[in-house]
Amino acid sequence: MLVRDWMTRNPVTIGPDTPVQEAYRIFREYEIRHLPVVDNRGRLIGLVSDHDIGSLLFQRLGDDGPRELGTVEAVMTRNVISIHADEQMSKTALLLHNRKFGCLPVVGVNEELLGIITTNDMLEILIALLTDQEKVDEEDDDQALG
């Protein structure tokens, strides 16, 4: 089972100059938790999460109300660990689990963003595998009884 078969292709992305308020709007509009940050060539340069934005919002709320939030470049994670599309899903699952990541960007040979794998994607795979196994078990039970 390869990453390319399960990744979300062409994920929503932002540039480093995107205002934090715009990133927040995108999180809400698309109901996502991670935004890859790409340069003008589509290469992965960072990652920002809804948690990053939430933490910033909390820090910037003062007694006198919200302050300027800046751009995602100031809050994004740099040097993001990524994977390639031809990686095995088992290796990807272990990396997500062991490092407690919410996602892994999928990049090509020149670091261009190809897709993303999230913990939600991994749950969908698990559900599909369990459902398939339950169908096989039911068929085996029916054959044993018949």
How would you sum up this structure, described in words?
By secondary structure, the protein is an alpha+beta fold. The protein has a single domain, classed as Roll (CBS-domain). Helices cover 41% and strands 21% of the residues. The chain has helices spanning 20-30, 50-60, 89-99, 119-145; strands at 8-9, 34-38, 44-49, 61-62, 65-66, 83-84, 103-107, 113-118. The strands form three sheets. A four-stranded mixed beta sheet has the order 1-8-7-6. A hairpin with a 5-residue loop joins strand 7 (103-107) and strand 8. It is elongated. The chain starts with 7 loop residues before the first strand and ends with a helix. The relative contact order is 0.19. The mean pLDDT is 89.
Topology:
Layout: E1 8-9, H1 20-30, E2 34-38, E3 44-49, H2 50-60, E4 61-62, E5 65-66, E6 83-84, H3 89-99, E7 103-107, E8 113-118, H4 119-145
Parallel strand pairs: 6-7
Antiparallel strand pairs: 1-8, 2-3, 4-5, 7-8
Largest sheet: 4 strands, mixed
- At the third CATH level, what is the topology name? CBS-domain
Rounded to the nearest angstrom, the radius of gyration is: 19 Å
The first-to-last residue Cα distance is: 34 Å
Q: What is the annotated CATH architecture?
A: Roll
The main sheet orders its strands as: 1-8-7-6
pLDDT averaged over residues: 89
What string gives the helices and strands in order? EHEEHEEEHEEH
The proportion of residues in beta strands is: 15-25%
Number of strands: 8
Fraction of residues in helix: 40-55%
Protein name: CBS domain-containing protein
Domain CBS: 7-64, 76-138
InterPro entries: CBS_dom, CBS_dom_sf, CBS_domain-containing
Keywords: CBS domain, Repeat
